[in-house]
Amino acid sequence: MKWNITSVAAACIVVGVAGFLAGKMTRGTVVKSEADLLIERSRVVMNQRGDSSDSRSATSARPIRPGSRSIATFEERLDNMEEIIRGENPLDRGRAMLSWIDSLAPDEFESAVERFRELGPTQNRMGEYAMLLTAWAELDPTAALAYTTEKTRGGMATGTVLTAWASRDPEAAIAWAKANHEGDEANPYMIGIIRGMVETDPARATELLQDLPFSGERGRALQAMIPHLMEMGTEGAKNWIAGLTDEKLRDGATARLAEEMAKKDPSGTAEWLLSNLGENSTRSVDEVFSEWAKTDKAAALDSFEKLPEGDARSRAFRGLVISDARENPQAAIALMDSYPQDVTDRTVQHVIWSSFDKNPDVAASQIGKIQDEGSRNRMYDRALNAWLSRDPAGAKTWINSANLPPDVVQKLDFGNQP
């Protein structure tokens, strides 16, 4: 099989785990060194194979591990695959898996995928799983899709196949997706297709995105485009958003892009976001101000102070508080005490849980600031019982000095403590 470089890169992007990516798409970035090494390996495979008609037989004769395909049965080669995916080093697994996949004949892929799934496609193995599915999609996408739609659940496998297919033959992939989806609800198959097209034809990918109705599927398709949009640069991403005709989609894109852009330009992002607020984008204000406070807290605080009353101001303040809560809870509390009118129950809850692991006494002292009685009592119950299970003596000392409501104390689990 002759590997397509775009498809290998697509496999790296699709999975998001197992050595291809670090963190979530929304929070992390592609680990270029690992992806580049795998792509470079695929180039070597392609060069070795050449374009001759007998390239498969030539490749098949190359040893993958000790021994060769010419003397190994298919069952033995499946055992070799098991050895590969049980390896500890993700890069070594990736290199070996590329060579192993290159040895497969078209009619062997289904059995290979079946064996892989029997071994358990755990999180650490999802990179190799995506590579195997991508390779099958290169040879016979309809057969691969027939298998994944019948035998797998959750959409990851089918999405991987569609991403690979769409990267080289988008209209065929789109036609399949439309023919295999019924009803007026959002077509879930379009998520993988949009992911596969965004690098090669972003305009068409955007068109498909806008054709999806408001739904979780559209949100996931948008999320799949975020890495490419970030590569366009701040102004390019803003212009892309401005060109969206659907107001809800534009608002959702503003929210998601703002959180990413704030990591590079928090002050500029805050100004842009505050000028384009909608229902969803307002929810990203706290994230943007939290990022801003990491680099220039004084400027972020000054911007917050100029905001009118409302949800955006409350969220901006929460972002400022959150930036301190984990490492310096006393500073976060001092900030809340300086702007009591801007403190919401959710802000207090963030401070409590952010500081609880390192400073349970400080965190517990803030529970009384929660205005809603039901929420306040639930927080007492959860936080204090967690503290009692971890440090019974310290927790009981604080509880005895805190003058808590009797009904709160009655619900606490003191165990065998005197």
Walk me through this protein's architecture.
- It is a single chain.
- This protein is an all-alpha fold.
- 69% of the residues lie in helices and 0% in strands.
- The chain has 2 domains: 216 residues, no CATH class; 77 residues, no CATH class.
- α6 packs antiparallel against α7.
- It is globular.
- The N and C termini lie far apart (72 Å).
Quick tags:
about 425 residues, mainly alpha, about 70% helix, about 0% strand
Biggest sheet, open or closed, and with what strands and sense?
none
Structural class by secondary-structure content: mainly alpha
Shape: globular
Compressed to H and E, one letter per element, the order equals HHHHHHHHHHHHHHHHHHHHHHHHH
* Separation, N- and C-terminal Cα atoms: 72 Å
Q: From the alpha carbons, calculate the radius of gyration and give it in angstroms.
A: 27 Å
Q: Provide a count of the helices.
A: 25
Which range best describes the helical content: under 10%, 10-25%, 25-40%, 40-55%, 55-70% or over 70%?
Answer: 55-70%
What's the domain count? Answer: 2
Q: What is the residue-averaged pLDDT?
A: 84
- Given as residue ranges, the uncertain stretches (5+ residues, pLDDT < 50) are 4-10, 12-70
Number of strands: 0
Strand content bin: under 5%
